[in-house]
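We store amino acids, tokens; thus:
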Amino acid sequence: MTQQITIGTRRVGQGEPCLIVAEIGINHNGRLDLALQLIEAAMKAGCDAVKFQKRTVDEVYTAAELDRPRESPFGDTNRALKEGLEFGLAEYRQIDGYCRSRGILWFASCWDEDSVDFIEQFDPPCYKIASASLTDLDLLRHHRRTGKPLILSTGMSTAAEIRRAVEVLGPDDLVMLHCTSTYPSRPAELNLRMIETLRREYRCPIGYSGHEVGLQTTLAAVVLGACLVERHLTLDRAMWGSDQAASVEPPGMARLVRDIRVVEAALGDGRKRVYDSELPIRDKLRRK
């Protein structure tokens, strides 16, 4: 049986309700007020947690990459964009206080060691390791040294790379997420049966991080056994930003949460039984 782990006050794994994470990521566009609105929208939709992204820009990107021309609301270089999207201590203090006051979990995917150390001061319930970081073995080890549960996304990774990452991290206090790292992802490339493949191969809970348009395929992931679901959240898919088009607006997120809970109730436990509600029908329709 796939083991369970604890994230905050929630048990995650087989037999437990799916943990639903609203990925705010960089959809706040560098605005704290927008970030707080997204947290509120996630809470109202019934999500269990929200997730941000944290980078130390000069460590994650090369100087050449940062100097590359790129138009954005923040300037005409990639550096201006990346720095404009980053929150600092003041913003994260407000995010932390707001989430705690609203009773919703928050954590982050940290793209470098300094970012892990920065977020650690807020004592998050877990860390997310982005698909892009799966082969950064030093970063994986740094995450593990925090002693926190880890969520590992497996997008754009080979089976061998995934196996090596799990060897480094170990299977304990680990959730693995099947993922396709295109924004948005085409349904034909989601390969949802990888959820079953990962569950057979690894002794840890398996979830799903989706970047597709629509909700049906995320529900299918839950049917296939995803114990944690992560979808990007936006206030408006037409907003400026690289992740907005692959995100879900608040009404859609509320429907997704509602439908996941209905699917969970409908799946049952797999043991055949005759329900009390069936007895009058049986007495009426069966001749023998």
About this structure: The chain has a mean pLDDT of 96. The chain is about 40% helix and 20% strand.
